[in-house]
Amino acid sequence: MSRRDQRFRRGTKGRCCECGCILSHWYYEKEGQLYCKKHYWARYGEHCHGCRDTIATGVIMVAGEQKYHPECFTCMSCEMFIGDGDSYTLVERTKLYCGHCFCPGEVSAARSASSLTKRPHTVALVSLPPHAGRGLSVATDLSQETGPLVTVTGLDSSTLSPELLSSVHMGDRVLEVNGIPVLNISPDEINCVIQDTNRPLQLTIEHNPQSPDDPPLSNDAPGQRQLS
Ligand SMILES: [Zn+2]
Ligand SMILES: [Zn+2]
Ligand SMILES: [Zn+2]
Question: Where in this protein does the record put region Disordered (predicted)?
């Protein structure tokens, strides 16, 4: 979970660079420019993927690239709130399921609708129990400019539960370990935490069918072309 990068300060007076109103109490600063609250959020605010409104304050729920108000982070099947640390699966960036309602059948249905060969894009938070042998290994690629690229390189089907095997696949990208973005953890620590079977482990995993590791599609045209 990410906490908002909220840049406001209290004190000296200034003017909003957009509307010129005097900023006497709270103001927001970004890249050396001052803003009133309204214009800061108009320009830099995040939009909730659920209700499309601006997320102005407080905690945001993050599933891959999508951000939500906590109250908008609900399962589309049972409509229960999905809390911080609860398992979930977000299919094709839009369909959000709690850990109880997600079943691989949904993925198969989506797959047959869009493409015969690829699983759809998913972001899932999965929990691995302690004391069971991990059954999962990862590799960290530090050559990426955007930060470490952690991918699943090994899955042991005799150790992992069927639900896990339906949510995690070889080559999937690990975004967070126990809620901490991999960007903020050293590669050694990532391995330590993953191999430490005394503790439960939570991984946020992205399966991106458009990732460069997959065989390239025939072209970048929107939609899927199917050969018959
Ligand atoms: Zn303003
Ligand atoms: Zn919302
Ligand atoms: Zn549900």
Answer: 204-228
